[in-house]
Amino acid sequence: MQTISILHPLTALILSPLLPGIINRTKAFFAGRKGQPLLQTYYDLARLFQKTPVYSQTTSWIFRAGPLAGLASAITALLVLPIGGGAAMFNFTGDLIFLIYLLGVMRFFTVLAALDTGSAFEGMGASREVQFSVLAEPALLLSLLAMGEIGEIALPAGIQETLPHLSLSGIYTSLSFSAWMHSGTVLLLAASALLIVLLTENSRIPVDDPTTHLELTMIHEVMVLDHSGPDLAMILYGAAIKLWIFSALLAGVLIPVRSGNFLLDGAATLGGIFLLAIVIGVIESSMARLRLLRIPQLLSGAGVLAILALVLVLRG
Amino acid sequence: MELWIDALIVLLILTNLKLIGSSRLSACIRIVALQGILLGILPGLVGAGQLTIRAILLSAITIVFKGIVFPWLLLRSMRSSSVRREMEPFIGYSTSMLVSVGLLALAMWMGSQLPLPIPLKSQLVVPLSLFTIMVGLLAIVSRRKALSQVLGYLVMENGIYAFGLALALKEPLLVELGTLLDVFMAVFVMGIAIFHINREFDHIDTDLLSTLKG
Hints:
The structure holds 2 protein chains of 2 kinds. Chain A is mainly alpha-helical. Chain A has helices spanning about 5-15, 20-30, 40-50, 60-80, 95-115, 120-155, 170-175, 175-200, 220-225, 230-255, 260-285, 295-315.
């Protein structure tokens, strides 16, 4: 474990609330508005943490534990997330499954807390969230696997992989420009599957609309309606960290700067993450939300792209 | 160079998947047109040896027929029969996408088992052609509308064309042109048949036709 790698989770903890701000500013720019300040999420978090939460009488301790467990698993997930060319704080074989399951735990607790309120509306949101994540998870896992296999093939001769094979750190350190030259099509397929998963998991526009409240089509927002005060702040913060994790996974593929210089690689990936936030803003401004019945089709499309990438890689 | 061939082949695979997973007939026709154009470009990249007049001529004719003439004929018969969507196929769209991914894996396996007389520039051409043939067949058996079945037939022919392009290096130009002419006649006749089916029954669902069998 390198001491310098503690910088990754710290940067994420500090900078992740900036991402929603960037997305909102991009959307405001397209709508011809001035938009909220870039640091709005920080102000929101500070304000919410000072408030007293209100609890419904029908809720139990599960409702109170939900946001806390969600935020805790998001922060834990940051520990295995590599940024730039460097390894993450912890890496072991198969830690990509660990990451996916941590995100699963986060979703599980959000869903439990939503069901605990006893509201039919929140139950509906929970059901949708779970339904779509069933389709999104295989796409994420398979595209990460495909990228891992490429990294191993494209590694220059004579250089051994020092990090465990099929760990996130191992996958992302071996992705480089030469990997893109070698099998760019496969990486592009995996990256597009990752983009669809990113939009789904973070309830972004073609799948879910993050700006609407009390609408029959929404998914994530409906589950957190009853949370207030510090609980809501933890949920917002957790969502920002989750967005950061997915953006880092995607930016690591799309911007494969692996010069070996810690600062340069890190800066390139950070730039990529913020660029992705702008791209998400552009997508949200230029697209309409898909009909709910079409979403499983989009997600199975992402799964098919990931499977195609994996099949192409395994064939060599 | 190999990267471009691979990219083209992956694009062709994606056109197949898009065709099998989309319900709008006009979108399907455009996808088949795109597939025809991509197939026209493929020989220039994959074909062993030099770019001859013959190869260029064949590419140009392929692109004109498969990219422009067939889609135009099909779009015309789609308008005249006023059908926009394929409703209620025998196999749903998401399911057929998953089935076609299985078919892709099968095609990859079959491609790796076939001994080839000559080494190819890309290992993916044979799997691609097998996959395209299978997707065409799947579209023919799983769709109700006559127009979708014509599209399946065209895609199947595209697969056979891709296979020929990979293996038959010295195939006479006349044979290729003859095949194209046959396909042209087939699409032409099918267009007329669709028009008549539509005028007789007010729709082009073919599953009712099977009750005519004795």
